């Protein structure tokens, strides 16, 4: 079943330098339990695509056209209904977990706020139980205690787990992960990706992954689209694209990754 | 916390002591003779000398200072020359008027400036924002003595709705408070706007929106909660400086507060009265500042001390 169906999506952004066509007619789909990755360098339009899919681009600064159907609702044609999808069927894992939670409210309060919307019947104490379970499910140790922590008291990796827990609280069909590991230490990155994949197995959510990191793309994706200047320059199964790139740009993108000896010799993935 | 508080209070007392000492010296360096002010134009040299002796002004400045400090420690700030009453009593009698005016003005400012700043930040770059911008720049540009006189002319003389001067009925509070608030609203609402605009654009607001938070919650629970510290600081600082006497407005509206008292004390070179005014107002200003500082931890967990949760 197609969860996300994007057809000929175009986004024009009003910037101080004039109108910029950030996304220029791209089409792709994401099915349940599938991970589709948009890969490209900064300014290629991949994050703008992620925002457009959630109808999160500011109305006055962005002109979106084309079709973008999420769970049967075209969010381009009906941005108001898109608002209802957010927090119900779509959830976002943000780029920088350190700035993604309000600094003045506890983790438990921000998680509880989502639970209060997604499961309005829960009592206060039941909500707290549920929040504890969610933190536990993203492998946070001592979850009961961490509920009372403020964001600044947790590390980046921990915060990203909290944000994943918040995304899971609404049991989304589609997860939009916008560079979910780029702000984290390398040692923490693998754990977060692993957690995402594990949760995908359990919930059969579709994931739209945005990254500039070939390693991440290779690890998590079913299909990848290589993006440059708002267009797809190459699309296909992950091994086909990474293993035998057809386009010069993809080759250069791959070559830009520093490799360890073992990588070039035998390959890791 | 107790340690922090003790340290802050000690610092505050030192600051007040330094302010009072500086003022003690400065008023004596300024030209003008208090004896001449008391004695009037017809006083003879002998009269003036007698007055100076009565005031204790024939002693050397260090002697006078010693006398002042020992008196201060006993709560005695000397007799006001012009009121012929203990200077402290004169100040304390006027103080409630200034506190009332400053309180009304700051309350009015907060009630108008915060919603206005939030509203215009939500509608950045629209006609509403532009209109508010023009309004606040105008508000900032109008000096208080001019606004005061205009309001007086319009609403007390041409259309006599409010009393023109003094504080005999509560309606007398309206014009002076509005005069002060006009300028303060202009300043504070721009600050609120700036803070809100920055916080509404912060990643956590977008992320909260992505998980379906209502716009009202994003505005108040997210963006405003994070803007509250600078706004509170600005309101606190403004309030503290108003307690030092809203001189111009008090004179325009003949308001019986500290501001008009200061003017009179300076005119008559009433040293004890000047010193008592400075002591009381600086204590108040520093007290308000301390209170604001103590409120920070309630608003922002990042400045709370000694309550760490393990990583």
Q: How is the secondary structure organized here?
A:
The complex is a heterodimer of chains A (269) and B (311).
Chain A: E1 2-15, E2 18-31, E3 35-39, H1 46-53, E4 62-70, E5 73-74, H2 79-85, E6 90-93, H3 107-118, H4 124-137, H5 143-146, H6 156-169, E7 174-178, H7 186-203, E8 206-211, H8 214-220, E9 223-228, E10 231-237, H9 238-243, H10 248-255, H11 261-265
Parallel strand pairs in A: 3-8, 3-9, 6-7, 7-8
Antiparallel strand pairs in A: 1-2, 1-4, 4-5, 9-10
Chain B: H1 2-29, H2 34-39, H3 45-55, H4 61-73, H5 87-122, H6 127-141, H7 144-158, H8 174-200, H9 203-210, H10 215-243, H11 247-252, H12 258-267, H13 271-299
Helix pairs in contact in B: 1-13, 5-8, 5-10, 5-13, 6-8, 7-8, 8-10, 9-10, 10-13, 12-13
Mind explaining what this structure looks like?
The complex is a heterodimer of chains A (269) and B (311). Chain A is built from eleven helices and ten strands. In chain A, helix 4 (124-137) crosses helix 6. Chain A is globular, with a radius of gyration of 19 Å. Chain A folds into two domains: 2-89 and 173-265, Rossmann fold, CATH 3.40.50; 101-171, no CATH class. In chain A, strand 9 (223-228) and strand 10 (231-237) form a beta hairpin. In chain A, the strands form two sheets. In chain A, strands 6-7-8-3-9-10 form a six-stranded mixed sheet, sandwiched between helices. By secondary structure, chain A is α/β, with parallel strands linked by helices. With 311 residues, chain B is mainly α. Chain B has a domain at 95-270: MetI-like (MetI-like fold). Chain B has helices at residues 2-29, 34-39, 45-55, 61-73, 87-122, 127-141, 144-158, 174-200, 203-210, 215-243, 247-252, 258-267, 271-299. The A-B interface holds A 54, 56, 60, 83-84, 86-88, 90-92, 94-96, 99-106, 110, 113-114, 117, 142, 145-146, 148-150, 152-155, 158, 163, 166-167, 170, 176 and B 125, 202-204, 206-213, 217, 221-222, 225-226, 299-302, 308-311.
């Amino acid at each position: 079943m197609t969860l996300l169906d994007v057809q000929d999506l175009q986004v024009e952004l009003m910037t101080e330098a004039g109108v910029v066509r950030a996304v220029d007619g791209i089409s792709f789909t994401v099915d349940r339990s599938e991970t589709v990755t948009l890969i490209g360098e900064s300014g290629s339009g991949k994050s703008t695509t992620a925002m457009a899919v959630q109808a999160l681009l500011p109305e006055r600064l962005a002109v979106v056209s084309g079709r973008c159907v999420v769970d049967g609702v075209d969010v381009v044609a009906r941005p108001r209904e898109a608002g209802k999808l957010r927090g119900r069927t779509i959830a976002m894992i943000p780029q920088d977990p350190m700035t993604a939670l309000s600094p003045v409210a506890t983790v438990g309060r921000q998680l509880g706020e989502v639970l209060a919307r997604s499961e309005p019947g829960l009592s206060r104490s039941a909500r707290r139980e549920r929040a504890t379970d969610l933190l536990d499910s993203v492998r946070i140790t001592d979850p009961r205690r961490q509920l009372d922590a403020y964001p600044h008291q947790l590390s980046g990796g921990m915060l990203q787990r909290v944000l994943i827990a918040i995304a899971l609280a609404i049991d989304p069909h589609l997860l939009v992960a916008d560079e979910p590991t780029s702000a984290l230490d390398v040692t923490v990155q693998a754990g977060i990706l692993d957690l995402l994949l594990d949760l995908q197995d359990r919930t059969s959510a579709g994931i739209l992954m945005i990254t500039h990191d070939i390693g991440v793309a290779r690890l998590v994706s079913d299909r990848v689209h290589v993006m440059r200047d708002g267009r797809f320059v190459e699309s296909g199964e992950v091994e086909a694209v990474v293993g035998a790139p057809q386009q010069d740009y993809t080759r250069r993108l791959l070559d830009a990754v520093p490799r360890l000896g073992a990588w070039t010799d035998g390959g890791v993935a | 916390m107790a340690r922090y508080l003790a340290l802050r209070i000690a610092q505050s007392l030192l600051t007040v002591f330094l302010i009072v000492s500086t003022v003690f010296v400065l008023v004596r360096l300024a030209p003008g003779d208090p004896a001449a002010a008391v004695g009037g134009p017809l006083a003879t040299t002998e009269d003036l000398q007698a007055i100076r002796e009565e005031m204790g002004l024939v002693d050397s400045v260090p002697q006078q200072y010693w006398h002042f400090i020992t008196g201060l420690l006993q709560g005695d700030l000397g007799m006001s020359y012009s009121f012929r009453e203990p200077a402290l009593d004169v100040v304390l009698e006027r103080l409630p008027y200034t506190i009332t005016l400053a309180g009304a003005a700051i309350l009015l400012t907060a009630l108008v400036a915060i919603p206005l700043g939030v509203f215009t930040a939500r509608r950045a770059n629209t006609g509403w924002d532009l209109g508010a911008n023009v309004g606040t720049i105008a508000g900032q540009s109008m000096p208080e003595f001019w606004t005061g006189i205009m309001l007086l002319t319009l609403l007390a003389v041409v259309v006599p709705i409010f009393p023109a001067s003094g504080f005999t009925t509560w309606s007398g509070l309206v014009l002076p408070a509005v005069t002060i608030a006009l300028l303060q609203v202009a300043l504070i609402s721009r600050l609120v706007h700036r803070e809100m605009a920055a916080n509404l654009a912060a990643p956590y607001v977008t992320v909260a929106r992505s998980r379906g938070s209502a716009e009202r919650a994003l505005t108040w629970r997210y963006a405003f909660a994070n803007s509250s510290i600078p706004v509170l600081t600005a309101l606190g600082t403004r309030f503290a400086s108003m307690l030092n006497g809203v001189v111009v407005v008090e004179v325009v509206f003949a308001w019986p507060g500290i501001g008009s008292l200061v003017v009179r004390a300076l005119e008559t070179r009433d040293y004890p009265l000047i010193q008592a005014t400075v002591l009381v107002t600086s204590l108040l200003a520093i007290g308000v500042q301390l209170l604001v500082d103590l409120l920070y931890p309630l608003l922002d967990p990042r400045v709370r001390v000694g309550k760490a949760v393990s990583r």
